[in-house]
Amino acid sequence: MRFGVDEAGKGPVFGSMWAAAVVVPDESIDPETAVPEGVDDSKRLSPAKREELAAVIREDDRLRIGVAEITPERIDDPETDMNTLTVAAHAEALDDAGVGASELGGEDSIGGEHCLSGVVDAGDTSEERFARRVREFAAGDLSVHAEHGADETYPIVAAASIVAKVERDAQMARLAEEYGDVGSGYPSDPTTREFLESYVADHGAVPPFARESWSTCRDVLAANEQSGLGDF
Question: For 149-196, what is each residue's pLDDT tens digit?
Fold first, then answer.
């Protein structure tokens, strides 16, 4: 497996979903040893450790990194859904890393042509369906294996998980600098909920970085509207 892909930020009500691809294009290099020691599922690492490892990963010239951002605007589009957007995020991260067969080659073959093989963290109940859809969405001719919990099994997917999570962490830090403490962005976070309720009360709308179509936003908007009606 010469590439790994994972996403971060699928569940929050604030911010984008991010995906990252980590690629080891040189067939003479063992992908298991190309990523730094200590990589793990990003959720198991402290923010400081994630940033440290992400910097090492990005600075290693044996690796190619691709990143994709799925914005709240795309998430709110009624013509799509999160499963499709997760597929798109993985494929776009691979495209950003430049994994087209013509550029990198690979050790596996589909239809008689050489292609690069790798593993993605399955974002669907069906691993086979998710792998097929990523392969169809990606620009290159790829051999894709999808597996639940791949970031816990494959170091190269764990590395991608770290890069994606650091991208999301950086976005949340930028939002905090501009808007104040917005919390983690997850609906279960009291700080996030308090910020959302306060912002809606002040502006009559959700902040521009919120996923307006999500039930959390809809509920807060409805509660604010009801509160306003009670003032008459």
Answer: 999 999 999 999 999 999 999 999 999 999 999 999 999 999 999 999
Dihedral angle computed from the Cα positions of residues 131, 135, 140 and 143, in that order, rounded to the nearest 10 degrees: 50
User: Terminus-to-terminus CA distance in the chain, angstroms?
Assistant: 64
What is the spatial distance between Cα 191 and Cα 186, in angstroms, rounded to a whole number?
Answer: 9
Mean pLDDT lowest among 57-61, 97-101, 112-116, 153-157: 112-116
Alpha-helix residue ranges (DSSP H) falling in the chain: 31-34, 47-59, 72-76, 82-97, 101-104, 127-137, 150-153, 155-179, 190-203, 215-229
Q: How far apart are CA 146 and CA 129, in angstroms?
A: 9
Helix (H, G, I), strand (E, B) or coil at 115: strand
Q: What backbone phi and psi angles, to 5 degrees, belong to 165?
A: -65, -35
Domains and CATH numbers, the chain: 3-173 (3.30.420.10), 178-225 (1.10.10.460)
Query: Mutual orientation of helices 82-97 and 127-137 as an angle, nearest 10°?
Result: 50
Q: Look at the chain and count its residues.
A: 232
